[in-house]
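cron nightly-structures :: item 1 of 1
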Amino acid sequence: MEQFDKHTMPLRVNSLDILKGAIMVLMAVDHVRVYSGIPSNSFEPAFFFTRWITHFCAPGFAFLAGTSAFLYGQRVNDKKKLSGFLLTRGLFLILLEITVIRFFWTFNFNYSNFFLAGVIWMLGWCMVIMALLTKLKPLAVGIVGLIIIASQQAFKFLPKVVPNSLHVSFGKFWEFIYPSGLQGIEGVTILYVIVPWIGVMAAGYGFGLILLMEKEKRNKLCRIIGISAITVFLIAGSLLANSKPTTNESPAFIFRLLNQNKYPASQLYLLMTLGPIIALIPFAEKARGWLFNILSVFGRVPLFYYLLYIPLIHLSALVVMYLSEGVISFDLYSTAPFTFLPEENRWSLPLLYFVFFINVIMLFFLCKWYSKFKKKYPYGILKFF
């Protein structure tokens, strides 16, 4: 990652592409797990850590999306253009979530029974909000983001100031912002609320200022911020884990420490996940070799990867079902990523990783081709992928 200049801003920052690529690969592990029927709340070590390593995905992608927006703004040097890009990209992501992506998850159009506000929905709305926030100075945006993250629980109590006569209608809206126990829209499952994720993206935008610094200072700050976040998490998380009463059936301390709340993402969850990602940036700058080249390919075309890998994983699950049981049941995945398979139909962990590995290999060649195609024709809607 070279020293940046507004007039010589590189089109890609390889270290960020590597980290985004790693995040995309880890995300595939979790979504293969979804279709395998293996529950997300298991404390069996192999299952637990298969789920836990994927916790870095949503925070890392939201944070780095903010950083990428900052770098794009520096390159075009036009706030109006940056705001317009974020607005149109955000609305495009929202449209994809409620149409194409929803179908890829479920292979049905039964919206009346199940509609998901997932990660792409969240990223889209955060970009729409960022289109407004980027009118502020980057430092101010970053500070706003940190304040939202730190004070997120306050959003739970905001509906209390709304008159009782408006609670029902207000609740249908507010549950998309932060869970407050109000009645949302029937048939809609909200997996990712906007808060604190808008704070994460805004913090990533402000973090872009650090990437403009001289190399040694930049790397030092990344290590300080990352290690400090990890340290705070270990201390605060350990104190919290030990403060709760336990029984003989309680999970071991390491599981209580690492099993932080993701929905919505707590402060400890974000410290646990963003700390290592920030600390790894200096190492990603120096990363070389075939593995990092592969990750960089995925990181250059993340949305293309995402749109391919969900239907690919879904189809793989149906193939596994047919080979093992001789039948195909679309109903088992009609509310994916919320799925339940009878214990006798759940995959083994080796099968999960085998399917994941085969899918990633196929995705690599497709993403490599598309990356070259996009570089040759960087026009119109292709810039969103």
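cron nightly-structures :: done
Residues 1-11 have pLDDT under 50 and may be disordered.
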